[in-house]
Amino acid sequence: MFWFIKLGIKQTKINTPISLITQNQKRILFVSAADWAFRIHRLSLAKWLIGRGFKVAVICPKGDVVEELQQSGLEVYEMHLSRDRISLSELFAASKSIIQSIENFNPDILHCISLRCILLGWYATRTNSTSPRLVNHVIGMGSIFSENPRSIRLKMIRGIVDWGLKRAFRMHNSTTVFQNYDDLRWWQQRAGLQSNQALCIPGGIDWHLDNYEDTLNEGRILFVGRMLRDKGILELIDAWGELLKEGISSELYLCGAVDPGNPNSFSKAEMETLAEKRGFKWLGRRDDVPEQMARAALIVLPTYREGFPRVLLEAGMASRAVVATDVPGCREIVENEKTGLLVKPREVRSLFRAMKRLINDSSLREQLAHRLHERVKAEFSDSVINPKWGDLYDNITRT
Questions:
Q1: Cα angle vertex 356, ends 353, 359, to 5°?
Q2: Span of 153-167, 223-237, 280-294, 383-397 with lowest mean pLDDT
Q3: Nearest of 391, 382, 385 to residue 26 by alpha carbon
Q4: Which residues in 360-370 are b (16+ Cβ under 10 Å) and which e?
Q5: For the chain, which residues make up each domain, given as ranges?
Q6: What value, to the nearest 5°, has the Cα angle with vertex 41 and ends 39 and 44?
Q7: N or C terminus: which one in the chain shows less Cβ crowding within 10 Å?
Q8: Residue 125 has pLDDT above 50, yes or no
Q9: pTM score, two decimals?
Q10: Residue 293, phi then psi, degrees to nearest 5
């Protein structure tokens, strides 16, 4: 998260030729915390925009997929972000980097993805009367808002972040987009936002069907996400342990990496010790999530709070049944008893009962999976969501 990030930025354009500004061609500059995250979550939107005549660029840390972004038609500017600690001097450098990319690319819209990028975009443009229109894209509340801070230090950091976000959201040239209505209502009340200052656009997924061999394991339970305590990792392990105590044959697979910059993350050593002691399989970060889902009977997300969890969209696309917690983000996708099962967060017994029910009832699993599949396709595929972004860009550049 933003408060545990060391921001060291030398602004450079990564091997991208200078392009001419086409008259009336809208220009959008995304600000992203990671090139790989942009590829997973926003590249489909960027390609859709390019196909409709937009000029698109992104400023992000240089990683392994920069070349893929360029080959997709984006201009890419480099920004160095690490997740170790805060450095105010390098925060200022990060803002300067965004200013330079704005001068070089001349965007109509600056689309800032995540709380930390929103704060950077606000700081970089706060005193410039000729800044582009700002889109503050809140993709999640993060651990600093999902739980009450316990230490004085975290309370101070939350206060500073809260102060900055309120000002970013209230800027005269900004529009704030949330992924779920719980977050929208929460911030409307907290920051005093008017109805024309904020809206909700859910997350989407690039819909396609993978044709993997039928390797489903009736007892395999899969979690996909970062190894964070507030994802409900410990509750999931304990609930699975209850299944084993009742003699229910099952396997638990956790797919995802640790996040050293997040205070709620397990360490690599902790995960390895837990896996050895409790008997589940920790896969680490994987590039074959669809294949892992094809092998699983059940996808479980016992998180405390989400923005709009992609794993549930992926489960729908893969036609897999899900158990999730009844929290913001999850309840936007999963309708209890219709497209999955919702349970109370932090409750091992509630999670255990839902997992047991679906492991033992393949017919119910198939019904829930089919309905989720149809809902995700109809409501959350990129062919439905991307035009909502196009309409927003058109509207805010006309005003």
A1: 150
A2: 153-167
A3: 391
A4: eeeeebeebbe
A5: 2-204+382-398, 220-380
A6: 70
A7: C
A8: yes
A9: 0.89
A10: -65, -35
Domain 2-204+382-398: top CATH class = alpha beta
DSSP sequence for 213-235: -----TTEEEEES--BGGGTHHH
Residue 167's CB is within 10 A of a number of other CB atoms, namely 15
Q: Which of 282, 261, 266 is nearest to 231 (CA)?
A: 266
364, 361, 363, 356: which is closest to 244 by C-alpha?
356
Topology, domain 220-380:
Rossmann fold (3.40.50)
> Among 114, 41, 112, 44, which residue's Cα sits nearest to residue 73?
44
Q: Which of 178, 94, 110, 100 is nearest to 141 (CA)?
A: 178
Task: Check the CA dihedral 281-350-378-142 and report its sign.
Answer: negative
Collect all residues with Cβ–Cβ distance below 8 Å to 262 and sequence separation of at least 6. Answer: 1, 4, 83, 143, 226, 228
Rounded-to-integer distance, Cα 285 and Cα 227, Å: 10
CA distance linking residue 22 with residue 163, whole number of Å: 38
Tokens of 203: 């997350």
Beta strands across the sheet bearing 27-31: 12-13, 75-78, 55-60, 27-31, 109-113, 133-138, 174-178, 198-200
Q: Match 């196909």 to its residue by tokens.
A: 51
pLDDT digits (tens, 9 = 90+) for 313-351: 999 999 999 999 999 999 999 999 999 999 999 999 999
Closest CA to 372 of 213, 139, 205, 223: 205
